[in-house]
Amino acid sequence: MRQIITLFLLATLFISCKKDIKTGNNYSFYHWSTNYHPTENTDQLIKDGGTYKEYVRFFDLVVDRKANSVFPIATIQFDEEVQIMAQEIIPVVYIRNEVFLHKDAGKNNLNKLAKNTAEKIKRIQNKHLTGKAAVKQIQMDCDWTDRTKTNFFNFLKFLKKEMPGYVISSTLRLHQVKFKERTGVPPVDRVVLMAYNVGDLGDVEEVNSIISNEVTALYLKQLEDYPLPYDVALPLFEWGVLYREGKLQGLIRDLTPSLLESAFAKAGKENSYKATSDSYINGIFIYKGDDLRVETVNKEKLQELSSLIKKASGSDSNYETIFYHINSPLTLKFSSDELSSFAQ
Questions:
Q1: d(CA 106, CA 196)
Q2: How far is Cα 36 from Cα 182, in angstroms, rounded to an integer?
Q3: Three-state DSSP class for 121?
Q4: 192-248 per-position pLDDT tens digit
Q5: Global pTM?
Q6: Cα(104)–Cα(108) distance, rounded to whole angstroms?
C-alpha cells in the first residue's frame, strides 16, 4: 500500500511539473521561408508555443506568362538531415487569384489542378516528413474575390476528394467575414482568419497597412456567427514599403537598422524615411529621393487586436492562435508569456 501511495504522489508531482513548464494559452506559427532550416530560436518558439504545430508554406500556384499555364513555384526546400521540432506540419499552398481567372479554370482543368496539387503535397510529405512529423491538415491560402470564388470553391471540392482523411482548411480575410453572404463560405472543414494586412499598401499616406485596430473592429461584428470553425492568425512581422513619386514600388523585407541607415534618412512622420542615394537592398532597387514607410507591430497594438478578436468571438470560442511568421526577427522582441497572453 505504501508503494502505491508513493507512486501516486510521484505521478501527481510529475503532472504538476509538466503543467508548470507551459502555462497560459498555446499558440502556433506560420513558416513562410522557401528554405526549411530550423534554428535554436525557431525550435524554442515551437516548444514555447505548446501546440507543437507548424504551418509550412509548401509552394505557390501562379500563372506562368510564357507558358500561359498554371505552375507551382517557390517549392519548400528541406535540409536532408533536418530535425523537426514540430510534431505536426500543416502544408500551406498560396494561390494567386490569377489562377482562377485563367483560361484553364474550367471544371475539368480545376479537377486536374487539384489532383496535381494533392500529388505534389504528398510527394513532399513522403520525402521529407515521414517518420518526422504528422500531416493531418492541408491549407489553401487564397484571397478569393467575387470573380474567382466559384472556381476557387470548385477547386477546394476537388481537392477534398483527392485527399480523403485530411482536414482541408482555407484562409479567410476580414471582408469575407463581414460580407459572407456576398463573398460566400468556402467548402472546407475550417478556416483561418488572417487578422492583418488591413490597410491600403498603394496609398503613400497610409499609416500602417499591417495592423489597424480601428479598421479591424469594423469587420468583426459577425465573427461569432461565422458558420465554420475558425482559427486566428496574428501578425508578427515588419517590412519597409517603398514608393517612388507616390507610387508603390515594392516591399523590403528583413530591413535591419544598419540597412535602413545605409540608404535612408528620417523624414516627416515618425515611420517615414527618404532615400539619400541609389542602392540595392534585399532584391529591391532604391533611387535617391524614394520614400519609405517602415511598418511594424508593437506589443500594445497586438494586445489590443487580440482583445478585439477574443471579444468578437464570444465566451464559448475555442480557436487556435497562429503567429505569422516564425522566421521574423520581430519574434525576438516578444516573450513567450506575451505571445501566450495574445493567444486564445
A1: 32
A2: 38
A3: helix
A4: 999 999 999 999 999 999 999 999 999 999 999 999 999 999 999 999 999 999 999
A5: 0.92
A6: 9
